[in-house]
Amino acid sequence: MLLVPVPLRVVGSCLVRMSRPVLRTWMLITQLLSTQNIPAMLAYPEHMSQLMRSTQEHAMPLSNGLLLASLRAVDQQRSRILKGEMIQPYHYLTQEKARLLSPGEIVKMQIEIFPTSAVIRKGNKLRVAISPSNQAQGILNCPRQERAAGGITTIHNSPQYPFSVVLPIVPMAALN
How many folded domains does the chain comprise? Predict the structure, then answer.
């Protein structure tokens, strides 16, 4: 699991309503057991608050999202875009639009995070945990389980392959 801190500027306390967060990352498959492999990726934001009288941080999961790499195709026309930023990718999620992966191919993943609300206080942090699967929530059917086994997945974060999180935020004043 990869943990990525997300810089977040908050003045005072505010309600952060993440209506449709989107994780954008790049994934490299360096080894597949067959060309039919279908790696998955799970991402979830966590609220990091400082515990009183402690130097350790405590993480509280806020939400999560899941996407099979082979079903990463996005319909730009049906996706929601706000001020030039895609805030809700529309994934086809059909066998006809599935795109298999090849070893050495770097692919862009746009993972929609399920909507949630949270109070993020000044000085607290938001981080994103990335994992190659989530068997408890995203159980694959039997044929896909066989194809998803094995392989090595690398998450990229560089100027050429930037990692980002889009957080549509609704200030508390706008909710009154």
Answer: 1
